[in-house]
Every structure is written in C-alpha cells, then in structure tokens.
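Here is one chain, start to finish.
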Amino acid sequence: MHQIKRSLLLIGLTAVLAAPFVSTSTNPTSAVTAAAKTTKSVNRQTLAKAIKRTPDLNPTSSVRHFSFRTYYSYFTLFNKNYNVQRMSKPTVFKHHQATVYVPSAELRETGYVTAAIKNWNVALGTKVFRIGTATNHTITVNMKDGPTSPDGSWDGYYQTNKVYVNANFYNNANYLPTVYTDLTGDKMAGASSPNSAAYQHQYKRYWTAVITHELGHSLGLDHTPYSNDIMASEFESAGSDFKYTWTDYKVVDNSFAILTGKLSTRDINRAKLTKSIGYW
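Its structure:
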C-alpha cells in the first residue's frame, strides 16, 4: 500500500496495492485437515516461544517444520504473527499449483504476468503458477478502470481468484514518475520521456512488481511494513491477520521492492509458511 502526497502532480491514492477482500476466519484446506487427524501437534506455549524467537514477520525454518496438525490447530496464531490468511477459494490451487489466464491482450503481450509468475516460481523453487487458457485456468489477471480519487484508489488488487490492474494508472504516463519520486525523493530516469529505454525499464519493473504483489495475496500473504518486501504497504491496522499497526514504511537499505520487483527473504519464508498451513 502506498500514498502519494497531496502536493504532487497526481491526486493522492489511498492504496496503490489494495488489500484483498477476504474473511480471516476460514480454516486451512481439507488436505491439511485430513493429515491433522493423524499427526501430533505441539502445545500452544511451545509454539508461541518458537514464534517469538523468529525475526519480525519472518517465519524462518524454525517455525516451518511442525506437523500438519500444529498448523491446522493454531493457524490463527500463525495468521496474527506473520500477517497471513487464506485469501483464495479452495479450487484455485490444485496440488499446490494455480493456472493463470490473462484475458487482457494488452497485459498478455507485455509479458509482465509471465515475469511475475517467474518471480514466484524461481523464489519458491517450484512451479506454483503456470500460464493457462481461457478454458483452463484458476486465476485471471485483467485490466480494470479503477478509482483515482484520494480515497480507495489502487494499482492492483486480488479478490478470491481474480487480479486486477488499474488501467487508469497503467495508461497514465505521469503516474509512475510521481510514485517513484514520492517513494525515493529522487526523479525517475526518463521521467519526461515515456518512450525512452530508461522509462520503459522502470515501467516494466513496476507493473511486474504490482502483479507479483497481487499473486502473493493469492498465496495467502497480507501486507508488511518493510519497504524491501514485495508485499509492503505504507500503512495497516492491527487485526486478526496483522500483528501490529503501522503508519509508514520501515525503509530497509533505501530499497523499495515495488520499484525493483525483487522478493525478499521474508516474502519467500511467508509463502513457504502458507503452503505448510494449507493456503495454497
């Protein structure tokens, strides 16, 4: 999530990367439920101690070795401590894999969706996403005329099994340079020349990162405050799937993943955790 300052050229937006619209009370998948019946679980106190020893919002390997029953029994504890929840309907992932179709010819031809898919597949070491067809898919990525007003606007959002990219920002040549300056305080290379190689290079990075972020929601990842996470947002409030409230980015190494498209170790570890819980 990101907010553009009102003094800049473009009107501000409340959410560049919108939170998905889902319930946080949904149990993990039936596959995990079945395994949970026959696998021993640790107690809550032991689990809480293990979670407390991990870095903030980063489920390192020390909390990713538990039994299926542990994840099933305490999924709400994991949700709260690592900002995760089930965000996709059960049919989206089959054998830990989703099939993606891009109805928008404009998006399909750019290769941004393919690049976003590659980001996750390489990071997780498995083909979690693959390209599908109009008749064979479980997720769609499409363009949509989204809001541009100060309240409720977004670059992309994920809901149930659909990713949308805001066409009104995507097709606005002034939009990305404004976002870039707002985040970094610097002028974007090629800002005044949309056809230049420098502009196009950053444009591809940015919109690939937006789609990578939204696919991250499909895996069950909610936002973090860390700027170098692909799942970063500028502000959130504490809740059942948010460990704490924050009102600004925690800037790490002056890096913003939304501008680079790179996944952090925290992004990857959280995705590995949500697989163990059964969210994908």
